[in-house]
Amino acid sequence: MALGRRALGTVAGIPRPAISTAIPTHEQGRCYLLDLGANVEASADRLVDFARMGEVMARHVDGLARPRVALLNVGVEGIKGTASVRQADARLRELPELDYRGYVEGDGIFAGRVDVVVCDGFVGNAVLKASEGLARMLVSRVQATFEAHWGSRLVGLLARPALRRLRGELDPVRYNGASLLGLAGIVVKSHGGSDADGFRFAVLRAVQEVEHDLPRRLARELGGAPQHSTSRAGATGGDDRQ
User: Fold this and answer.
1) Most buried among 44, 80, 215, 224, by the most CB within 10 A?
2) Does residue 242 fall inside a structural domain?
3) Is position 65 within any domain?
4) Rounded Cα distance, 218 and 213, in Å
5) How does 119-147 read in b/e, with b if 16+ C-beta sit within 10 Å?
6) The domain spanning residue 76 has which CATH number?
7) How far is CA 125 from CA 72, 145, 207, 219, in A?
8) Is residue 221 part of a domain?
9) Predicted local confidence at residue 104, as pLDDT
10) How does the average pLDDT of the chain come out, rounded?
11) What is the pLDDT of residues 119-147, one digit of tens each?
12) Domain total for the chain?
């Protein structure tokens, strides 16, 4: 994140970029979660920035007419949450251009009721890593269940195409590639343990953002102009991709 800010600058006066990625939801949908670790703590102002950036990305990259935005909280009641979350909630309700749905709890991220979920980087990173671990555990348990004895192995053979689809849908590798939103260029962070297939998904994510000229759209809709050319896509290693 620091290298991206130094090399590319930011758009629309955004002081700190946010890391965002898509995670699978109910009925083959997906939801953007941010921040995922760039900002361990986030003030109300930063949470509002994240919500606005996530909404622009979901609208242009996924083609959603009016993405539904929510704040991640420990409950849906207005009195719950930290001071920064409650303050961000009040400010987001004053933005008519956003389809803001209020608070969502952890299980609501995967329910498909919202398209963008906003939180600080500490919470977001913990949610992401826990989700990846749960997905791997579920796939492993299902496989072990079908391999337990000869009868279940026979059923497993019949169910193999469905199991293969399930594994593909839940595999965290498929969702590799987290965007650093707010930079005046495209930077996609790949998971440190990714294999070639995971890195391919990260590159495809970068290509998608290039095709939609995401930094320029963020600058135009959030106000202000990029400090540097948006034609460059940066890698986390520091080199630029033309």
Assistant:
1) 215
2) no
3) yes
4) 9
5) bbbebbbebbeebbeebeeebeebeeebe
6) 3.40.718.10
7) 13, 30, 24, 26
8) yes
9) 94
10) 83
11) 999 999 899 888 888 877 877 777 777 67
12) 1
